[in-house]
Amino acid sequence: MPLPTSGKTPWPPIQFAEPFADMDVWRAWYGGDTAHLAQVYGGPGSYAANPRAREFFDLNKPSQYRGGIVGGLARMFWGEPVTPGQPQAKLHVPIAADVAELSANLLWTDIPTVTVDSDSTTDAGLAKSTTEQIKRYLDDRGHATMREGTEQASALSGVYVRVVWDVSLRPRPWWDILGPDAVIPEWKWGILAAATVWRQLDSPTGGSEVWRLLERHEPGSIEYGLYKGDADVLGMSMALADHPETEGLAGRVNDKGMVDTQVDRLLVAYLPNIRPNRGWGHIPEAVPFGRSDFAGIEPLLGALDEAWTSWMRDLRLGKARIMLPQSMLETDGPGTGGMFDLDREVFVQLNMLDDGSGAAALAMNQFAIRVDEHERTCNALRKQILSSAGYSAQSFGDEGTVAATATEVVARKEESLTTRGTKILYQRPALLDLVTATMMVDVVHCRAKGVDPAAELTATWPQAVQPDPEAVGRTLSFLETAGAISTYMKVKTLRPEWDEEEVLKEVARIRDDKQVANPIPAGDPFNTGGGQDPQNDPAADGGDGALEDAGDGQEPGDQADDNQGQAKAA
């Protein structure tokens, strides 16, 4: 499908009005801008106030207007108008941003391991060089990009990641994060089949018209289009040379405004936060979208802001105020007003009768500050927000910094770790598609060598909670005492992130150290280790010597039989 033709095409498309408006609400909570929050909850930023969206979703009915979406927005804390004559004193607690940051830290604090599936290739050398190149994609820059994208996905329901390249800047392709409302997707069976990336440009004439650049991605090609319209309409199609920001593209596209990527794969991947989306099931084009961590808890976020604002209001109203009679004021003459010196220590009592009202005495007024009530309310709302978002309070440090074992930490963070595991299910396929497309671009446009783009990949995320080294050491010691574990398995257990080659090298080093520390006694022709029966050699039972004996092609049991035969012959 080509780009839209000139005309009165609504933009963004009407079917995405509701999802994009919800994303704008979540962006307001994520950004913490109080003016933006006030806008989306009753201002022109709400899709319920958009005339085109109201017509599409039939929101012009009076019943829906008074008691439905618009009425609900007006009842939100941030949708309430400011009382005339009162200052804007609403406060915002940035817990939404904390939730998004926690989600990104749980998933991308450490880099996942992406390797070539051993079953997909028979060339071990090519598989190794391909894996090494993938590590370069996930360098500090790539790692940071994916972490940033995951944080935005947590807040906005998902993000798009685009593969870009420019050999004059970097020798390898890299990734670019796109907001979920900056792309118009097309799905086939829930899989992204095409994507139109768009952005608004500044008017070259400074007028009120709106210029937009559309970039349509399909497998094998990218099509560009420049349009001039207004805030709601795409408008007329213009030549790329008509705008200073796009005139450089005019010499790179063909007569159809397209660029051949020479890669038979879509160079844009969708990274969902978590699925399914519970609010957009009635919109077919939005069903494949992810779900924001803020979805459904916006009223709780507003209630927390309201409780915090009330707490600060109590502090403001609770300031001590001194009330004094007018007779205690000093004046410099008629028309100059009065003043009172708070540091003055001696006052002359007026010669007047006391009417019993205490009007001639100083008085102080100070309201109670309901600290405990507000604190319990804020803590309860905070815990409910975290639980509804899928995270444990321990993940935010609510249990303090008392030392705990790895088992105790896992138990306390069980809800957060469950959410992390669920999100990895959606992150892994998107990451593998993205890496595969990057390898294809690297080979075609960056002339990468030793890279197999057709190889199937696997991705493994590190453990979120590392085991306690002391507990692991005790476990390995018990197994060694029982003779139930080999040196190979001990190293593998202690270093699960190592590959096979690294483990075998460490086993060999351990065995060499043991031989240096415990050399074989002289005069031991049968290599019994100083009187030890070869039949009881730990190597025969798969102990520490098993790998060394197996290294020369001879089974440990065969070695023991040879020793016995030599003894009998002697």
Mean pLDDT: 79
Number of helices: 17
How many DSSP E strands?
14
Percentage of residues in strands: 5-15%
Give the helix/strand class.
alpha+beta
Specify the helix fraction band. 25-40%
What is the CA–CA distance across the termini? 88 Å
How would you classify the quaternary structure?
single chain
Spans of at least 5 consecutive residues whose pLDDT stays below 50 are: 56-74, 400-406, 539-557, 563-570
Describe this structure in words.
- With 570 residues, this protein is of the alpha+beta class.
- The protein contains 17 helices and 14 strands.
- Strands 1, 5, 6, 7, 8, 9 and 10 form a seven-stranded antiparallel beta sheet that branches.
- α6 crosses α8 (140-156) and α9 (298-317) packs antiparallel against α10.
- It is flat.
- Residues 56-74, 400-406, 539-557 and 563-570 have low confidence and may be disordered.
